Structures are given as structure tokens and as C-alpha cells.
Amino acid sequence: MGEIITVGNKGKNIRSDCFVTFELKDKGGPDIRLESKVAVMYGNAIMAQAKELMEFFGIQDASLKIEDSGALPWVLSARIEAAISKAVSPDKEFNPVMLKENEYTTFKDRNRFSRLYLPGNTPGLMINAGIHKPDGIILDLEDAVAPDKKDEARFLVRNALRALDFYGSERMVRINQGDRGIKDLDYLIPHNVNLILLSKCEKPEQIHDVNQRIGQLKKKYKIHNPVWLMPIIESALGVINAYAVATAAENVVAIAIGLEDYTADLGTKRTTEGTESFFARSMVVNAARAAGIQPIDSVFSDVADSEGLKQTVLRSRALGFDGMGCIHPRQIRIIHENFAPSAEETEKAKKIVSAYHAALEQGLGVVSLGTKMIDPPVVKRALNTINLAVKMGKLSENWRETYEQV
What we know:
The protein has about 400 residues and is α/β, with parallel strands linked by helices. The protein has three domains: about 5-90; about 100-340, TIM Barrel, CATH 3.20.20.60; about 345-405, no CATH class. About 45% of the residues lie in helices and about 15% in strands. It has helices at about 40-55, 75-90, 125, 150-165, 180-185, 205-220, 235-240, 240-245, 260-265, 280-290, 305-320, 330-340, 345-360, 375-390, 400-405, and strands spanning about 5-10, 15-25, 30-35, 60-70, 115-120, 135-140, 170-175, 195-200, 230-235, 255, 295, 325, 370, 370-375. Strand 11 (about 295), helix 11 (about 305-320) and strand 12 (about 325) form a beta-alpha-beta unit.
């Protein structure tokens, strides 16, 4: 008899998941048992899938018990494979078919106003996340997963990258620190992950270590799609080294700040006003701008405080951030609306660009709008506003031709 292995989640509030108990036996062949409220409709399919997985991994003598809470096939597959892998360390993996909808890549400068964090071991929160249209969906293997669940979460996240429809959101994963994070990459890079978040990043060497493994995996699996990186600054040392981190590699597209860990590192308390983090946030913004990448703000943790979130977004945007994290789908709309240019800002930007364009056509060396002179930095800010308004669908694509000529 072998060790009794358990994987997955069960309980009153668990949905779209299952709990698997697996044990190798000396003899007796495969013994598969199922407990499910939907056994009448889906019992045969679940049993057939379980049998297929046992045969795929060459398991002949073992007991497998499945306590189903509405798990989709890719979830069931991840749970069973994780249990078997703990027992026999197979030399192959069972990958669900990659959805054609998930075969896209993303651009370095795409909008990243919102990124929705989802625990990497909780499939019930993943399944419909894409319909809320966040710019990015983060499957979190780090803080959101209990230490004893991290190994099994890798299988679930791997299968989600293949079989879960992300509805065009950037497919992100936050990996663990150190060697565990490097191992996480084995479950991500072959499956078209778009962006990797590096938690608690403090020095360029962490970027280099991750990129070394990414390069090895891309070569092994003949992968040509880009894999972007977003280091998260979460300590005083990370803040001081923000520019070195931001410029550590060409595939670093953004740096984010994590204020909960940062304020803990300072030995202070995070406040709504953010006085204690003003220096750090400014450092991250300046480091990102100097490096030519996107600065991304921390999450707002009070899901019920919509007005507080709005004011935080406005302050964040005023500091120069391009986006922020969110922990609930209801935060996405507020973040998008308040990071996007207002109608007044867009109209002013159009006037500035039009005036500058007209002056160029007339060969004028001096450009003015009303009583105010317009210099190149003002025009650049106006162009950024127009570009953003076009991307957000708040301004016609016809404007793109106008400002691209300036």
C-alpha cells in the first residue's frame, strides 16, 4: 500500500472543483469511485475521464476517489494528474487541448489599466473572469495559494492557460520567489502565457534568473511568442533599485508596486491618503518612465468602497501610473473609467494637436492656443491623451492619422 494522497478542495462553499484521494495498491487493479450531485448527468463522462488518465499514466493498481463539486474536465484532469504525480513522478504530462481563442500574443505597450488577481488553486473564481474584460487576468501561484497547495496549483494553472477562455485578456501568472518560482515556469512557458509577474523583486539578478529559464524552455519547445515580465516592487530595497530592475531586460514591460508588503517592510501602516508610500510610488513611476515602460500601481483592498477606489485611481493617475491591480471584478469598470482621459481632457488635447498641426503646415515657428504658448512637451502629453482615448474607443480612429503626422 502506498501513501494516501489528497488534492483539490471540498466543502459547503466549494464550486467548480473536486477533491481527489489517491493511493497506490499492491494488486487489485484500478478502483475508481465517484461522489457527485451531477452523477446522473455526467457520472459516466467523469468516470471515463478518470479511467483515461489512469491508463495514460500507466496506473494499474490504485484506488481513486473523486468527490465532485461541479468540476469542469480541465479541472478534474489537473486534480487527478497532480495526485498521480505526487505518487509516481511520471515523465509525461496530460495537457488539455489548447483553445484556439487562447493562441494570441500581446504587445509590449498594450493597455494595462486593470489586472485581476485570481487565486491559482481556486477554479471557481477563474471560470467566468474573462467576461468582465479586465486588461489582464493574473492566475496567482504566490501569496494566494497555501504553501501545501502550491504544487497542485501548478497543474490547475497550466490547464487553465490551455482550456479556459480568457476573452482576450492578457494571460498573466504571478510566480513564487526563488527556486520554486523557476520551477513554476515549467508549467507556464509551454502553454502560451503572455506575461509573468515576479513578486518581491529587489535586484536585476532575479530578472536574469527567470529569463534564463524562459530561454531554455522556449528553445526546448520551439516557442517564438514573447513572454513579458512585470516585476513587483514590494520592499525598501526594491524601491531603491527600481530603475535597475526596470532596465534589467528587454522583455520587462512594466513594473508594479505592492504596497501591503512595502509598508510592512517599512514598519508602518498603509493608509488611504498614501503619505507613507508617496516616495516609493514616485520612485517606481520615475524608474518606469526613465526605462520607457509602464508604471502600475498596487491593488485597492476595500472591495465595498467604490468612491474610495475612484479617488485612489485619480490620485494614482495624477502621480503618473498607467494602471493598477484589482481583487474583484466590480473594481474593473471604475479603474477603466478613471484611468481613461475625460471628455474635457480629450477635447483640450485635440485642440492642442490641431493647433500644432496647423502651425507646422504654415511653417510657423511659434505655436499658440488662445493666450498660451504650446511647446513640444505639451504636444507630447496631448498626443498621449489622444492615443489613449482612441484605444479606449472614446475618440474616432480618424484622429490617429492626424496625430501620427505630427
